[in-house]
Specification:
- Its EC number is 1.11.1.7.
- One of its GO terms (biological process) is response to oxidative stress.
- Keywords: Calcium, Disulfide bond, Glycoprotein, Heme, Iron, Metal-binding, Oxidoreductase, Peroxidase.
- Its cofactor is heme b; Ca(2+).
- The protein is mostly helical.
- It has a domain of about 140 residues: Peroxidase, domain 2, CATH 1.10.420.10.
- It has nine helices and two strands.
- It has a two-stranded antiparallel ribbon with strand order 1-2.
- The radius of gyration is 20 Å and the shape is globular.
- It starts with about 20 loop residues before the first helix and ends with a helix.
């Protein structure tokens, strides 16, 4: 990664679906920022992710930004007691009202670098979302957060394993799905042509 994260190989050969996921279907598979650790663990367990996977994948919040609406429930009308006072004060300057449309970084220490400082944030009660901070509050995930905070190599290793596992969710096999000529557009009637080209390329490599 240009931001400093780990390089890893993703298994090839995954077919594209014949329809695009709806917004509702997508959101049903993504834990909300206000979800607590118990809810996230339960949700992702249905996809065969264990607590280490969950904490590692959450580490993706080491880079990126968020709209105020995703966390102002922790500031207004009363402050979440698990949030550091100074951190909360600074967030209120960025988001002066509960319905502010401003944005802020997810990781205050190294917002543009993929590293383990996100977990250091959590240990200092500076996680932006409930779904972040509760990973340090919850007894099932607290130790994992700590281990990643003190060992970036371990975090990278577990992040890669979880990402590869996620890339293999609901894989289409046989004649299900298609090999798209353009990843963002369904094929028009050129499935058989594209498949033959791919197969020919594969044969030529042997």
């Amino acid at each position: 990664m240009q931001s400093g994260g780990p390089d890893y190989d993703v298994p090839l050969g995954r077919r594209d679906g014949l329809s695009f996921a709806t917004r509702n279907a997508t959101l049903q598979n993504l834990p909300a920022p206000f979800a607590n650790a118990a809810a996230i663990l339960s949700s992702l367990a249905t996809k065969n992710f264990d607590p280490t996977d969950v904490v590692a994948l959450s580490g993706g919040h080491t880079i990126g930004t968020s709209h105020c609406s995703s966390f102002t429930g922790r500031l207004y009308p009363t402050q979440d007691p698990t949030m550091d006072q100074t951190f909360a004060k600074n967030l209120k300057q960025v988001c002066p009202t509960a319905n502010s449309s401003n944005t802020t970084v997810l990781d205050i220490r190294t917002p543009n670098k993929f590293d383990n400082k996100y977990y250091v944030d959590l240990m200092n009660r500076q996680g932006l979302f409930t779904s972040d901070q509760d990973l340090y509050t919850n007894s099932r995930t607290r130790g994992i957060v700590t281990s990643f905070a003190v060992n970036q190599t371990l975090f990278f290793e577990k992040f890669v394993a979880a990402m590869v596992k996620m890339s293999q969710l609901s894989v289409l096999t046989g004649k299900a799905g298609e090999i798209r000529a353009n990843c963002s557009v369904r094929n028009a009637n050129n499935n058989s042509l594209l498949a033959s080209v791919v197969e020919e390329e594969a044969r030529s490599e042997y």
